[in-house]
Design brief:
By secondary structure, the chain is α/β, with parallel strands linked by helices. Helix 5 links the parallel strand 2 and strand 3. It is built from 20 helices and seven strands. The strands form two sheets. A five-stranded parallel beta sheet has the order 2-3-4-1-5, with helices on both faces. It folds into four domains: 154 residues, 3-Layer(aba) Sandwich (Rossmann fold); 86 residues, Helicase, Ruva Protein, domain 3; 90 residues, Zinc Finger, Delta Prime, domain 3; 77 residues, DNA polymerase III clamp loader subunits, C-terminal domain (post-AAA+ oligomerization domain-like, Orthogonal Bundle), CATH 1.10.3710.10. The chain is elongated.
């Protein structure tokens, strides 16, 4: 059965597909053989293949009753859900995690139960963006999964470990869809140009235009086909305007409008950045951003900054991370890095975007190119560890406050030496509690400003401790 042939489709709930339907929908695979990529999920006998192509009733009963499909946009999650329904003749119902609520879920489940009780078709319930469902909404799915009232196919672009609650996840088969390769998307694009369901050879795609389209798509099949459709429409419209179309190619090709590089560029301005401020991509990108600054790769750091800026990340959040990196990664190897970062954070809050991107970039360049030292960071953590371990003896008497009445009678301040009266403004006396007199927390690096600190610190400690 052709999943997308409106005249022959008998599966209730699947969308009718006509000539006005978007190209990405028209070109959805009709069988597992047309699915691009995801070969790790499509091996013979795999749970997904048993779910899509059950050989018999026993095979169908052995197939999972709930599947969570996790993967980037445009990798085939919706397609696989359609295939589950279409190839087995099951009824298809689609809900959105953005617009649907518990009431909608319960209505679908009750209808599915009535149909089963009267010998009707089984129901495939597809929930797109299931990570948008609240815990209560996800809990409402549990009885239907446990009793196989519906076959649940849930799709998410976010890590299910964070976005799907544990009871539902434990009852589901988790399948991870991998990003499509450039060749996977190339094959889909070329099929769409030639296939009767697609453009049916009405245009031809120039090689440089194809490469640019693939770069814009970034492994997203839906985006690639959407760009192709827009570019093809532009090319076909240009045919009707005298002088617009360039006569290129072999003589037999000259009657077919060419989608060239300029046409693709006019059809789409920029590829959308794959970045979700509420999901694991947020954490992955900010982690890479920080590690790039730590690793002194200023170009990579600017790349990740650009991804966050284009995706609309709060510039104040980015600025705070730069301030932390200046203290944690650069430290005293270049104390001015923290000054730059703090000034950047204040300026970003003052002026906002889009100008804030320049300020953020300056701070990133300073932090990424500065000499690195985590000596101060390590020093405070070591000191905190000692305090938590109980190493916090009494403050030496000569350092205690001697300004209140009776303090001197207790010996507070007796024998204290004022540092500014001593040579080099360093007074030889005990400052730490007795049990910590030998503690050495701060060990400066040999980089940047800390090279000078190392020599000075050695002289200071010689004076203090002899």
């Amino acid at each position: 059965m052709d999943l997308f042939d409106a005249a022959t489709s008998t599966v209730e709930g699947l969308p009718d597909v006509g000539s006005t339907t978007p190209l990405a929908v028209r070109m959805r695979p009709r069988s597992l053989g047309e699915v691009a990529g995801q070969q790790h999920l499509l091996a013979p006998g795999s749970p997904l293949r048993r779910l899509v192509e059950p050989a018999d009733d026993a095979s169908r009963r052995a197939a999972p009753s709930s599947v969570v499909l996790w993967g980037p946009p445009g990798t085939g999650k919706t397609t696989l859900a359609y295939l589950v329904a279409a190839t087995s003749g099951r009824r298809f119902v689609e809900l959105s995690g953005v617009t649907s609520g518990v009431k909608d879920v319960r209505a679908v489940v009750e209808d599915a139960r009535r149909r089963l009780a009267t010998g009707g078709a089984e129901t495939v319930l597809f929930i797109d963006e299931v990570h948008r469902f609240s815990t209560t909404q996800q809990d409402a799915l549990l009885p239907s999964v446990e009793n196989r009232w519906v076959t649940l196919v849930a799709a998410t672009t976010e890590n299910p470990s964070f976005s799907v609650n544990s009871p539902l996840l434990s009852r589901s088969l988790l399948l991870t869809l991998r990003p499509l390769s450039t060749d996977d998307v190339r094959g889909l694009v070329r099929r769409a140009v030639a296939d009767e369901r697609g453009l049916a050879g009405a245009v031809r795609l120039a090689e440089d235009a194809e490469e640019h389209l693939l770069r814009l798509a970034g492994g997203d099949a839906r985006k690639a086909l959407t760009i192709l459709e827009a570019a093809a429409g532009a090319a076909l419209e240009a045919v009707e305007v005298p002088g617009e179309r360039e006569e290129t190619g072999e003589p037999g090709e000259r009657d077919v409008p060419c989608v060239d590089l300029a046409t693709v560029e006019r059809a789409i301005d920029v590829a959308a950045v794959r970045y979700d401020r509420a999901g694991d991509q947020h954490y992955d990108v900010i982690s890479a951003f920080i590690k790039s600054m730590r690793g002194s790769d200023v170009d990579a750091a600017l790349h990740y900054l650009a991804r966050m800026v284009v995706a609309g990340e709060d510039p104040r959040f980015i600025a705070r991370r730069i301030v932390i990196a200046a203290a944690e990664e650069v430290g005293m190897a270049d104390p001015s890095a923290l000054q730059t970062a703090v000034a950047a954070a204040q300026a970003v809050a003052l002026i906002g975007m889009p100008e804030a991107r320049i300020i953020l970039a300056e701070a990133v360049v300073h932090v990424a190119t500065a000499p690195k030292s985590n000596a101060s960071y390590s020093a405070i953590d070591a000191a905190i560890a000692d305090v938590r371990a109980g190493k916090a003896g009494p403050v030496p008497a000569h350092l205690r406050d001697a300004h209140y009445a009776g303090a001197q009678g207790l010996g507070h301040g007796k024998g204290y030496r004022y540092a500014h009266d001593e040579p080099h403004a360093v007074a030889r006396q005990q400052y730490a509690p007795d049990e910590l007199t030998d503690a050495r927390y701060y060990v400066p690096s040999d980089r940047g400003f800390e090279r000078d600190v190392t020599a000075r610190l050695e002289r200071i400690r010689q004076i203090l401790h002899g």
